[in-house]
Amino acid sequence: MTYCVAVKLKAGLVFLSDSRTNAGLDQISTFRKMIVYEKPGDRFMCLLSAGNLSISQSVREILQVEKLPHHDGGEPITIWNATSMFDAARVLGSAVRHVFERDGEALQRAGVDFNVSMIFGGQIGHEGMRLFQVYSAGNFIEATPETPFFQVGESKYGKPVLDRVITPDTPLDEAAKCALVSMDSTLKSNLSVGLPLDLVVYEADTLKTDRITCIDENNPYFRMVRNTWGQKLREVFDSIEDPAWDGAPTSVPLMGCSTRSQPLKKISNADEKLI
Predict the structure, then answer these.
(1) Are 185 and 162 in contact (CB under 8 A)?
(2) How far apart are CA 7 and CA 173, in angstroms?
């Protein structure tokens, strides 16, 4: 399993991925799920992948050389000459379908689902930044102001903090911090996600980035985030009043306030009916 998250903001893009893969409890390995494609001054693109490792590695390899016919008969479109991120995402979708056509039938005979999920984002030329989630069929959806982030892999544990914090106006470094908290929540609750992490932060309209780092268990900032988040969660939890069951004075009673819903009925003998 894995966990990858990408965030699109007015200020830029944040990409974060773990590196754990497993094929059983005793078959755990480290493979990077992120790759950056960059021509400084021309284009910046980042790809995150989850799902079957052999499929995602094949897609990444084919993506380097995949070509789409140009609509007016011009030079075939690749990720290196596409004039929009939409066209670059189309090339990625074509690469996914290429792998399916090559390997899908053999995988099916072996009882293996064609399972791959990808996040692809970046900026080309003067076009604005765009972020896409690509599915196993090669189709994709695009991030919007209402949904400014995508997750693939083991996403449920890290989603609540993203929902509460991330908006298009969130500052770039704050979003990077939020992504790391999201990852820490996932690491805490799921052993199939693991260090090291890859983090890339891209500032809008720069068409390049040097803000790339690999985070392992010795990284001082991530250790601080993990410790502080756990401590502050505990402090906030402890500050919430416990429910009062014994009639003790409270401004927030738990029992006897609703006029619409009655407490659960207890069954005390075999002759009583549920309804």
Answers:
(1) no
(2) 11
C-alpha 86/C-alpha 80 separation (Å) is 13
* Continuous segment of H or E residues that includes residue 17: strand 12-17
Give dist(CA 265, CA 270) in Å, integer: 14
The terminus-to-terminus CA distance of the chain in angstroms comes to: 44
Helix/strand/coil (H/E/C) assignment for every residue in 163-207: HHHCCCCCCHHHHHHHHHHHHHHHHHHCCCCCCCEEEEEEECCCC
Residues 72-110 pLDDT 10s: 889 999 999 999 999 999 999 999 999 999 999 999 999
Whole-model pTM?
0.94
- Using an 8 Å Cβ cutoff, are 67 and 86 in contact? no
C-alpha dihedral (50, 83, 37, 172), degrees to nearest 10: -80
CA 173 to CA 9: how far, in whole Å?
11
* Distance in angstroms (rounded) separating the CA atoms of residues 129 and 146: 16
Identify any residues that bridge with 134 across adjacent strands, giving them in sequence order. 118, 140
pLDDT (tens digit, 9 = 90+) per residue, 113-157? 999 999 999 999 999 999 999 999 999 999 999 999 999 999 999
Which helix (H) or strand (E) is 44 found in, with range? strand 43-51
DSSP assignment of 208-223, as one string?
----EEEE-TT-HHHH
